[in-house]
Automatic annotation (TrEMBL):
Organism per entry: Pseudoalteromonas citrea
Name of protein: Uncharacterized protein
Record key words, sorted: Signal
First and last residue of the signal peptide: 1-21
PROSITE patterns: PROKAR_LIPOPROTEIN
Length: 198
């Protein structure tokens, strides 16, 4: 049996914890941060339609792109190895989280719509994993562009080895999963933008 000196490992543990808490360099300028957590992510995309037509088209494009379906989260709590057989018995616990009405507000006169959305994506950061994102989205139609702002942004792993059905705020430190979540929001914005000009 190999004996490990716990005190000898302390500097490495401290170093890894410090590395995980260091803020990502060069955050995109469209990201607002409060206490190392993402507050909002704002995008804009052009359109060349008259205001009323732009609003109706934007509502269609947003509805085709954004969904607010519930997310299935799996955890492996209760998994165990048989004492005599050595067989691994998997306990696949599934929890359905979120979902509900998509549009929270639609005001054509103001040119504003507010939605609740969820999306699923593959985070290829430190460890490749399936993740889910929950957010509020505000889409505002202006004279020649649509402004898309994500807020209340939370995320979670879809498959974990522990009991968890909670979404956590999106952080901006290394290993927080920021890059994957940001790419997912950018992907959604690009789909809406492409729909508006086709």
């Amino acid at each position: 049996m190999i004996k490990v000196n716990r005190l000898a490992l302390a500097p490495f543990i401290l170093l890894s914890m410090t590395a995980c808490q260091s803020t990502i360099a060069n955050l995109p300028s469209n990201v607002e941060v409060v206490n190392k957590y993402v507050d909002t992510v704002a995008f804009s995309a052009p359109h060349d339609h008259e205001a009323k037509k732009a609003f109706k088209l934007a509502r269609l494009c947003v509805a085709e792109t954004i969904s607010n379906e519930s997310v299935i989260i799996n955890d492996a709590t209760g998994t165990f190895v048989g004492a005599f057989s050595g067989t691994v018995y998997h306990a696949n616990n599934k929890t359905s989280v979120g979902g509900g009405q998509l549009f929270q507000l639609v005001d054509e006169e103001l040119g504003v719509m507010i939605l609740r959305g969820t999306s699923e994506y593959i985070d290829t950061g430190m460890l490749k994993s399936e993740k889910a994102l929950k957010y509020k989205l505000k889409a505002s139609i202006k004279e020649n562009n649509i402004q898309i702002k994500f807020s209340d942004i939370t995320h979670t792993m879809k498959n974990s080895g522990y009991a968890s059905n909670s979404f956590n705020k999106l952080g901006t430190w290394s290993g927080s999963g920021f890059e994957g979540a940001y790419s997912n929001m950018q992907y959604l914005k690009n789909k809406i933008a492409k729909c508006l000009i086709t």
